[in-house]
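Final report, closing paragraph on structural work. Over the funding period we assembled a curated collection of sequence-structure pairs, and we close with a single example.
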Amino acid sequence: MKTDKFIISIFCFVTIMALFAGTGGAADCNVTKMGTLVVSPGELQFYVTQEQLTNPYPTTVQVNGFALSTDDGCATTTSWQENIDFCWVASKSDQWITLNGNPDSIARNNNGTGSFKVGVDINHLLANQNIYGGNVTIYDGNVTVTATISTDPATIPTTSIGIPVRVYVNALREAAEKSVATTDWLDLVMNVPVTEDISGALYVLAEHPSLAPGQVFAYRWDSENGMRFDLFSQWGHPVEGAESMFYAEDVQNTPIAIPFSSDEGIGNPVIPYAPTDVAGSDQAPNIKAFIPISFGGGLRLIGMEGDWIIRAVVKDNNGINDWQSWRELLYYVLHIQPVTGTWVVTEKFGGESYTYIDDTGTIYPMILHEERGNLSGVWSSPVAQTFLTVTYANSTDQICDTFAIQGHRLVVSSCVQSGGYEIYFVEPSIWGNVEYLYKITKLEPIAAGYLEGAWQYRFAGQADWSIPQDFSAVRLEVVIPLDPSCNCYLVNGTVNGYATGFMVDTGASIVLLNINDAGFMGFVDENGESTFESECEASTVTGVGGTSTGYLCNVDIEIEGRLYRQNVQAFFTDSWTGPALLGNTFLDQFHISTSSADGTMIIAP
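Its predicted structure, as stored:
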């Protein structure tokens, strides 16, 4: 703790001495006594769980003063005497600290030994009440006790002691997310954190806004019925019988996970609550235990592209409509990604790797589309497009039943075969028709997307396929994170081969460039003179900043080495000094979407 937190300003000191002088309970309250001031405890810690939003219990601070004596005749020896009469004042550094339950006053005592209570007012403390995911926010302050007691009144007329005050603010709720593919078999284990003060029934609620808008389903499992999803609420209104759709009737008597472990990770809840009988661990002493919930149990995610939101909440099942009394302990989002995309394929053949990009940089991608379990695709080539037959595959011929809505219940199957995709097509050759089979065994939905597998071929009419060889592909999308420094999207690219940083502006009608960069972008002759007049057209452009004069030119633009367009109309001007704007003369040929989960922008063919 920094020492400057314990230093009382001259103004504060004068104020305190005036208080001493003005107190009428003791005749010698303004007289400094020889002695030692002691306060206990010497530091204070409070722990706030945001879901409760209640003030923690205050702590009592005891103030004592002891006289110093040299009765043994030795000037260097001191001995403790009885308590002495003195005056003291306690002041605080921050509004969120309360003294004796009052946030606006100080505490004082005219009769020596005494005590006062230090508390926390969360109404002044919690500037952000949505800090979730095991994160901790720490607030530091101090309380200063100043007394008319000193070891040397001649040089230090008063004694001050600073008491550090620290508040840990933590949300118990675990927040996590995971990206999966539609061919994955979901077998998710979620650990729900529980403390001793949580009581009520545990509900596990799931919703898929794009598949079942406005509907929330209660997830349950038992040995007799297996896994089931029953309609819990519709457009915010619980259905009849919703109160009985709990996952566990009593959260405190539910089997727990020991030791603390999770395939998904439990985060780092670091609030130092006093250890409980169950926890006994420095890793998460504020949590009594984690209740493991197996979610999915072999559910295949075909047809469920989009976000699946899972919540674990605790509530007394009486008064189910009282949403304010719910305590949410877990918030989990599954981002279920389809194989949809424009893929650049690299495959091996004869010990060499080949990528479907020609010498001019033209890409011949494989375009796949998946929507609610329906698959289609085409593969571009220099000659034409080949239509693909795309199907789901697993380790057997069985395709398990998938997520389906029947009345007010979601019915799922329970099978665990591994899955994937199969792509089949036929192409003519001088030797006859050739059949091709590409088996996708891995689809990584993270970042821009990646897939891999094996491919084979055979001539039509043959029984056996060729020896499998590896292939992989990356999506031809550009994924751009939201830059918090400007609340905008910044992307790297080139203009006529010159490295250029762009700010994506979907509201700009044209690409906007600074005229000072034109020479680097090729608009100069061999003598270094500008060629705007011969290659470009003088023009004016009107935008939100007014009217600018400059030149309209055609340029070649690529971004992130993935998306490329030739002869893009751009406006060069000296009135624009910011980053190059990537406007709609480039963007209008691409599909642009923004993720609701993290704000990332995706630009795809």
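The helical segments are 10-22, 122-125, 532-535, 584-587. The chain has a mean pLDDT of 76. We thank the funder for supporting this effort.
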